[in-house]
């Protein structure tokens, strides 16, 4: 019978802005001298929230947990279009924003619900002939991309302070929320980009159960063990 270490399992991190998901993986691996650490779904450097790390034997479950549905909240800035569809990109167009209400925004947001084909943005990690799109974008190249089937369960605005709307969205794996922001801006005729994004949930995991990375890196190994969801428990998750 296979033996499991107390550090074989999942660790829930509340990722801050300004670092990559890979940075978080490296920091935990170095701090606790672990051989195998992976993550279940990339968050862009500017995004915050739930990042699921898998440690040791649990790295084999990364694909399983990567496939879970996601819940996010964030802000969309209308009137400004960027080349990356988010606040990290270069401004490519600025247009006036017509007066809008939360109710009007939600009427438009409702048209995004359900199954749909979504085009990945050029500034993304999607690979074309083995090369990530963002590397081609840096060279000023734009190439043909394949649309992906996604599903949006819920998309609603809870506040609007011109020109920024605060929203919450529930969607399937692989959905680019910044593409949703961009497409909504195009539909409204004023352009838009994703100003901020926070992942609240992924599958059965919730950011309320996650720890900030700074807190995690200050833990002793014994304290870390108490935060790890054991491998055998993970195996029971659908």
Quickly list its features.
alpha+beta, elongated, 34% strand, Pseudouridine synthase, two-stranded antiparallel ribbon, 2 domains, 8 helices, 15 strands, 238 residues
Largest sheet: 11 strands, mixed
Task: Using the alpha-carbon principal axes, give the shape.
Answer: elongated
- What is the fourth-level CATH superfamily of the largest domain? Pseudouridine synthase
Q: Can you give the mean pLDDT?
A: 91
Integer count of domains: 2
Kindly state the percentage of residues in helix: 10-25%
Give the CATH class of the largest domain.
Alpha Beta
- The CATH topology label of the largest domain is Pseudouridine synthase
**CATH architect. name of the largest domain:** 2-Layer Sandwich
Annotation, overall tally of beta strands? 15
User: Roughly what fraction of the amino acids lie in strands?
Assistant: 25-35%
- Low-confidence segments, given as residue ranges, are none
N/C terminus separation? 23 Å
Task: Explain the overall architecture.
The longest helix has 12 residues, at 177-188. The chain is 24% helix and 34% strand. It has helices at residues 21-31, 62-66, 102-109, 133-138, 177-188, 213-217, 221-227, 231-234; strands spanning 9-15, 37-39, 48-55, 70-78, 80-82, 91-94, 114-118, 127-128, 131-132, 148-161, 164-171, 192-202, 205-206, 211-212, 229-230. The chain has eight helices and 15 strands. It is α+β, with helices and mostly antiparallel strands and 238 residues long. The strands form three sheets. Strands 1, 2, 3, 4, 7, 10, 11, 12, 13, 14 and 15 form an eleven-stranded mixed beta sheet that branches. Strands 5-6 form a two-stranded antiparallel sheet. The protein folds into two domains: 9-67 and 205-234, Pseudouridine synthase (2-Layer Sandwich), CATH 3.30.2350; 70-201, Pseudouridine synthase (2-Layer Sandwich).
């Amino acid at each position: 019978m296979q033996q499991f270490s107390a550090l074989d399992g999942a660790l829930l991190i509340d990722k801050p802005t300004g670092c990559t998901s890979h940075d978080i993986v490296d920091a935990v691996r170095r701090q606790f001298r672990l051989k195998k650490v992976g993550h279940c779904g990339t968050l862009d450097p500017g995004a915050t929230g739930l990042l699921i790390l898998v440690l040791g034997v649990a790295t084999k479950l990364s694909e399983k947990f990567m496939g879970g549905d996601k819940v996010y909240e964030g802000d969309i800035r209308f009137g400004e279009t960027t080349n990356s569809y988010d606040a990290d990109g270069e401004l490519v167009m600025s247009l006036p924003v017509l007066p809008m209400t939360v109710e009007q925004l939600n009427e438009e947001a409702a048209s995004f619900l359900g199954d749909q084909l979504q085009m990945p943005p050029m500034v993304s990690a999607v690979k074309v002939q083995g090369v990530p799109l963002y590397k081609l974008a840096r060279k000023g190249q734009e190439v043909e991309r394949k649309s992906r089937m996604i599903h949006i369960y819920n998309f609603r605005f809870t506040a609007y302070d011109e020109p920024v709307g605060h929203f919450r969205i529930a969607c399937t794996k692989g959905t680019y929320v910044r593409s949703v922001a961009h497409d909504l801006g195009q539909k409204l005729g004023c352009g838009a980009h994703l100003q901020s994004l926070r992942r609240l949930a992924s599958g059965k995991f919730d950011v309320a159960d996650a720890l900030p990375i700074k807190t995690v890196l200050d833990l002793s190994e014994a304290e870390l063990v108490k935060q790890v969801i054991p491998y055998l428990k993970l195996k029971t998750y659908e």
